[in-house]
Design brief:
- The chain is 43% helix and 18% strand.
- By secondary structure, the protein is α/β, with parallel strands linked by helices.
- A five-stranded parallel beta sheet has the order 3-2-1-4-5, sandwiched between helices.
- The termini are far apart.
């Protein structure tokens, strides 16, 4: 056998975790960049039972699959519990996180150090494209809820789902 799975080489895996409620162009930028660095990239969609999202977990997974379909090495799965357990179960040694600002770094560094201390998983910080440095799912939902134009912040499929959901109230 030849290629990434041949003897002596290992499939390089990473995970991009988040709630993705909804996925934004900023998220997609990080996922796309990770997909060029790793053989397999898992998008781990966090299930938080105590927090009601705008979209159900299945809806988020389907939207992410649609907007990442061009990346053949991207897999989308739900997870709950510790991210390091998700990584351990799938033999994923690296977490890829986008950093928008210095304020993100403080929190993400603590998480990275905790994750590494728990299981040895490494965290790769990727600076966000400046175009998306202000962007968050929360901000998209808030602007859209007030009738603002978010068409340049999310893919068309997400915009359509967002408008339908908000129209329902």
């Amino acid at each position: 056998m030849t290629g990434p799975e041949s003897e002596g080489s290992q499939v390089r895996r990473a995970v991009c975790p988040g709630s993705f409620d909804p996925i934004t162009n900023g998220h997609i930028d990080i996922i796309a960049r990770a997909s060029r660095l790793y053989d397999e990239v898992y998008v781990a969609v966090m299930i938080n039972k105590s927090k009601k999202g705008l979209f159900e977990i299945e809806e988020r997974i389907e939207l992410i699959r649609q907007v990442t379909a061009e990346y053949a090495n991207v897999r989308v799965e739900a997870f709950h519990g510790l991210l390091v357990d998700f990584c351990k179960q799938r033999d994923i040694p690296a977490i890829v996180k986008g950093l928008r600002a210095v304020s993100d770094f403080d929190y993400e560094l603590q998480m990275a150090q905790m994750n590494n201390g728990l299981t040895g998983v490494e965290t790769l910080f990727v600076p966000t494209n400046p175009t998306y440095s202000f962007l968050s799912s929360s901000l998209v939902k808030e602007v859209a809820a007030w009738g603002g134009d978010v068409s340049h912040l999310v893919p068309a499929e997400v915009l359509e789902a967002l408008n339908k959901r908000l129209a329902k109230g």
